[in-house]
């Protein structure tokens, strides 16, 4: 009788250790693969048509705001616009935005 109870308790402890080990393995597996999966998802997002169209539209809106602004507003907008352009792939810019960005960066505007 006691031997059966000890066997059941031992089996329960082994089962719990197995479950704990599998959870620990899953956590280790997640910590290894999660950054890689996140990087791929980020790359796919940045190459999506929706992201690129949205960024171009935002940058064009910033360009229009800069053109309409007076001198004091232009000084404030310049750093914001330069930052927004810096986080976007320069090779994907249309010609009008590229010219605006280079002129703004070089201080010609």
Unreliable stretches (pLDDT < 50, length at least 5) are none
Any idea what the shape is? rod-shaped
Structural class estimated from helices and strands: mainly alpha
Instruction: Give the beta-strand count.
Output: 0
SS summary, helix count? 4
Q: What's the helical proportion of residues?
A: over 70%
User: What's the gyration radius in Å?
Assistant: 28 Å
Mean pLDDT: 89
Count of discrete structural domains: 2
- Pattern of helices and strands: HHHH
Largest sheet: none
| Intertermini distance | 91 Å
> What proportion strand?
under 5%
What would you note in describing this structure?
The protein is built from 4 helices and no strands. It is mostly helical and 109 residues long. Helix 2 packs antiparallel against helix 3. The chain has 2 domains: 36 residues; 57 residues, no CATH class. The protein starts with a helix and ends with a helix. The model has no long low-confidence stretch (mean pLDDT 89). The longest helix is centred in the N-terminal third of the chain and has 45 residues.
Quick recap of the structure?
The protein has 109 residues and is an all-alpha fold. Helix content is 84%, strand content 0%.
List keywords for this structure.
about 0% strand; single chain; about 110 residues; 2 domains; mainly alpha
Helices, strands, pairings?
Blueprint: H1 2-46, H2 49-68, H3 71-86, H4 95-105
């Amino acid at each position: 009788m006691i031997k059966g109870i000890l066997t059941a308790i031992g089996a329960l402890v082994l089962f719990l250790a197995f479950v704990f080990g599998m959870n620990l393995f899953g956590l280790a597996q997640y910590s290894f693969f999660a950054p890689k999966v996140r990087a791929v998802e980020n790359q796919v997002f940045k190459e999506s048509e929706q992201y690129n169209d949205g960024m171009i539209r935002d940058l064009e809106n910033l360009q229009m705001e800069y053109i309409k602004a007076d001198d004091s507003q232009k000084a404030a907008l310049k750093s914001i616009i330069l930052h927004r352009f810096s986080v976007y792939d320069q090779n994907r810019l249309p010609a009008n935005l590229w010219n605006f960005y280079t002129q703004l960066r070089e201080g010609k505007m």
